[in-house]
Each structure stands twice: as C-alpha cells, then as structure tokens.
Amino acid sequence: MSQPRTGTPGDVEEIHWPSLVAAISSISAVGIAIGLGLPLLSIILEKRGISSTLIGLNTAMAGVAAMAAAPITTKLAHKYGVAPTMIWAVLISALSALGFYYAQDFWMWFPLRFAFHGATTTLFILSEFWINAASPPSKRGFVLGIYATVLSLGFAAGPLLFSILGSDGIFPFLIGAGAILLAAIPIYIARDESPVLEEKPELHFMRYVFLVPTATAAVFIFGAVEAGGLSLFPIFAVRAHFTESQAALLLTMMGVGNVIFQIPLGLLSDRIADKRPLLAGMALMGFIGSMMLPLLLDNWLLMAGLLLFWGGCVSGLYTVGLSHLGSRLTGSDLAAANAAFVFCYAMGTVAGPQAIGAAIDVAGNNGFAWAIAAFFGLYALLSGIRLMFIRKRA
To answer: Domain Major facilitator superfamily (MFS) profile: where (predicted)?
Structure first.
C-alpha cells in the first residue's frame, strides 16, 4: 500500500471532506461495535456464572490496553503510514471481537480484551489526528463537533442493536465484527488522503501529557466522570427511590445532551482563540450540576433537565479539549499529543469508577455526586489558577 502524501498536517485552509468522511465514518462504525459489545460480553459472562468482581476486572482490561497502545501508535503510524496502521487495527479488532464467541475459557477473554481495545485505541488516536489535520483552524471546533455527534450516535446505536439481537448465538458477534470491518472501506478509499508523519515526535511520549495540560487534564476528567458516572448512576438513582426504568431514562437524557451540545460547543470554540476559559467554564458548570444532583432527587423532570444540560458540559470537555490540542500543535507533535490525550482519557476511565465507587461506600449515596463534583471542581480550580498565571506573565 502506498504511503499517503498530503503535505504537512495542520496547513489546510478549507474542510477536507474526503478525509473527514473516512475518519468519522470509520470510527463511528467502531463505536457501534463497542456499544454493542460492552453489554453483550457482560451479559454472557453473567450467564456463565462469572462473579461481578471478575467481570469488572476483565472489563478494566480496556483501560490497560488503551494505556499500553497509546505510546506506540504514533511510532507505528510513522513507520507504516496512518491509513495502513488503521486498516491493520480494524482487522485485529474485528478478529478479536469474533474471537469472544469461540473462547470458552474465561482466561482467554483477557488477551482478547487487550487486543480488541488496544486496536480500537489505535483507531481512535489516528482518526482524531486525521480529523484535526484535515480541519482548518477556523472550523476545527465545528468539525470535531460533527465527529463527536456522529460517534455518540454510534455508541447509542450499539445498545439498541443489543436489545434487538440479544446475546444468544454467533449472530451478535458477526454483526459487531462486520461493523468494524466496514470501517476499513472508507479508510482504504481515502488512503492517499491521510496525513503523513514525515518526522518522529521531538519529545518523549509522556512529555506530551504535560505539554498541553489543559487539554489532557480535561480529557482525564471526562474519562473519569463518563466511566464512573455511567456505570454507577443507575445505583445512585435506584437507591434514591427512582425505578430502574426511570433511571434508564435519566441516563438517556444525559446521552441526548451529549449528542445535541457537541456542534454548538464546537462552533462556540471556533469563535474563541483561547479555548482554556471555555474548558474551565464547562468544568465549573459540571461542578455546580453535580452538587445539585442530591437536591433534585424528589423531582424526576428537574433531574432530567439538569442531566440533559450536564451531559453536554461533560462531553464538551472532550470536544473542546481536542480542538484546543489541534490549535496548539501540528504534524508529528499533534499525532503524539493525540496519543497522550487518549492515554489520559484511559487513565480517567480506570480512576473514575474506583474513586466514585469508594466515595459511595464511604459517604453514602450522595458520595456519588460529591465525588464527581470533586473531579470537576479540582479541574476548574487548577485551570483557573493556571489562566491567572498565564495572563500575569503576558
């Protein structure tokens, strides 16, 4: 496969639609497969009599795999090309997704989880780098808003497919693997449009975590709140005397907010040269919303309205953080920083459920809201202090 030649990433003046369609559609197909696979695998393990602790341990391999894949993704893309690396990642993730059906021994699910989530992490890193590289600076937030919206719809379609297909037989696995394989088609068609990494990143991988700390810290908070919030919110809601169906609808409202706020927040970020105050503002709103959760437990409608708005603020940390990253870096540095970005997200998905779960055990049911508020509040405080120091030096 030929090495793509499109010039230096980050120098585009107009939206490069062939590249964007390839990157967005491919990663959305993967999103559908992940949204289908997560509940499917958990239900199957539950049917096999595997304990909740071991199911959680197996699921946690996703974060471990993401943290392992992030540092090497840029090196692979530099050596083999962005599009070829993505196609290999598609094949590995599709084969491992199908492998779950044939792996009868539980221990085999650990390397399969590692392969699946390691490969999908590579796809996320390179697709987001590709999108950032193909977006003009003046419209980057808008483009990333489209990406986040389509990806959110893909994740939402997965559980819907699961509700239709069920967990019996090979068919759900074939659908999941097929959705992933479909991702290779747009990547292959636009392979000559993918950005080129002609130079290796100048800094060690971990340096990129701290090179754009406002963005990487934002996505860490997003990962912690998303993973911990989504997994433990049903417990919080049911203990607060909502029914299971009411709790599920509240989660749905959060997901709706996730979808409808992405493009408006992206457009807003395009109008702001410095994205950091916007990130700090969303974290502050996330903090206020979290503290209000225990106060609205007697009113489902007010809780739903809050979660609609709150879901948009939470997801906006990812979209605007990614836009901030693209506004600061280009080329190989942007690709490496994108890997660091996803690495920090993975760290958040591991840390968030642990911290929020422990807070519930220690402080009771309201510990859920207080722990999430602590994540948001810490980010808002530190980013506010950082902004003051930057402005004083200027």
So the answer is: 19-394
